[in-house]
Amino acid sequence: MIIENQAVEQDGADPICAHKIEIYCPNCSKDVDEAELFNKTCNDCGTSLENPEQHVAVAVTSVPVIGITW
Ligand SMILES: [Zn+2]
Protein backbone atom coordinates (compact mmCIF):
# COMPACT_ATOMS: atom_id res chain seq x y z
CA MET A 1 0.00 0.00 0.00
CA ILE A 2 1.23 3.47 -0.82
CA ILE A 3 0.04 6.45 1.18
CA GLU A 4 0.63 9.77 -0.54
CA ASN A 5 0.94 12.91 1.51
CA GLN A 6 0.78 16.33 -0.06
CA ALA A 7 3.18 19.08 0.87
CA VAL A 8 2.01 20.94 3.97
CA GLU A 9 2.80 24.52 4.87
CA GLN A 10 3.17 24.96 8.60
CA ASP A 11 3.04 28.21 10.52
CA GLY A 12 6.36 28.90 12.19
CA ALA A 13 7.89 25.62 11.06
CA ASP A 14 9.52 24.11 8.01
CA PRO A 15 6.99 22.97 5.43
CA ILE A 16 6.59 19.22 5.06
CA CYS A 17 7.54 18.03 1.58
CA ALA A 18 5.16 15.83 -0.35
CA HIS A 19 6.09 12.24 0.34
CA LYS A 20 4.90 8.68 -0.09
CA ILE A 21 4.87 5.99 2.53
CA GLU A 22 4.98 2.43 1.24
CA ILE A 23 3.94 -0.27 3.69
CA TYR A 24 5.27 -3.80 3.42
CA CYS A 25 5.02 -6.99 5.43
CA PRO A 26 8.20 -7.30 7.54
CA ASN A 27 8.27 -11.06 6.97
CA CYS A 28 7.47 -11.70 3.29
CA SER A 29 7.98 -8.11 2.02
CA LYS A 30 4.68 -8.17 0.17
CA ASP A 31 2.64 -5.03 -0.29
CA VAL A 32 0.20 -4.56 2.61
CA ASP A 33 -3.26 -3.30 1.74
CA GLU A 34 -5.75 -1.39 3.86
CA ALA A 35 -7.69 -4.47 4.98
CA GLU A 36 -4.52 -6.30 6.04
CA LEU A 37 -3.35 -3.23 7.94
CA PHE A 38 -6.75 -2.99 9.65
CA ASN A 39 -6.58 -6.66 10.66
CA LYS A 40 -2.89 -6.23 11.56
CA THR A 41 -2.24 -9.56 9.88
CA CYS A 42 -0.54 -10.32 6.56
CA ASN A 43 -2.86 -12.32 4.27
CA ASP A 44 0.11 -13.97 2.58
CA CYS A 45 2.11 -15.30 5.51
CA GLY A 46 -0.02 -14.57 8.59
CA THR A 47 2.60 -12.40 10.25
CA SER A 48 1.44 -9.74 12.69
CA LEU A 49 1.56 -6.27 11.17
CA GLU A 50 1.77 -4.41 14.47
CA ASN A 51 5.03 -2.95 13.21
CA PRO A 52 4.85 -3.04 9.42
CA GLU A 53 7.86 -2.11 7.36
CA GLN A 54 7.54 1.44 6.07
CA HIS A 55 9.49 3.04 3.28
CA VAL A 56 9.26 6.80 3.07
CA ALA A 57 9.98 8.33 -0.32
CA VAL A 58 10.16 12.11 -0.42
CA ALA A 59 9.01 13.62 -3.70
CA VAL A 60 11.81 15.01 -5.84
CA THR A 61 10.15 18.37 -6.16
CA SER A 62 8.78 20.33 -3.24
CA VAL A 63 6.74 22.57 -5.56
CA PRO A 64 3.04 21.81 -5.20
CA VAL A 65 1.42 20.70 -8.45
CA ILE A 66 -1.50 23.06 -7.90
CA GLY A 67 -0.97 26.49 -9.40
CA ILE A 68 1.62 25.57 -12.04
CA THR A 69 0.78 26.87 -15.49
CA TRP A 70 2.77 25.61 -18.45
ZN1 LIG B 1 3.67 -11.43 4.90
What is the arithmetic mean of pLDDT?
A: 84
State the major sheet: 3 strands, antiparallel
Strand order, largest beta sheet: 1-2-3
Subunit organisation of the chains: single chain
Question: What radius of gyration results from the CA coordinates?
Answer: 16 Å
Question: What small molecules does the structure contain?
Answer: zinc ion
What is the number of strand segments? 3
Shape: elongated
SSE string: EEHE
What percent strand?
15-25%
Helix percentage range: under 10%
State the end-to-end distance.
32 Å
> SS-based structural class?
mainly beta
Task: Count the domains.
Answer: 1
Weakly predicted, low-confidence segments:
none
Number of helices: 1
Would you summarize the structure shown here?
This protein has 70 residues and is mostly beta strands.
Descriptive overview:
The chain has 70 residues and is mainly beta. It has one domain. 9% of the residues lie in helices and 23% in strands. Strands 1-2-3 form a three-stranded antiparallel β-sheet, with no helix packed on it. The protein is elongated. The N and C termini lie far apart (32 Å). The mean pLDDT is 84. The site of zinc ion has 8 residues, from loops. Zinc ion binds next to loops.
What's the structural blueprint in terms of helices and strands?
Blueprint: E1 2-5, E2 19-24, H1 34-39, E3 53-58
Antiparallel strand pairs: 1-2, 2-3
The chain binds zinc ion.
Residues 25, 27-28, 30, 42, 44-45, 47 line the site of zinc ion.
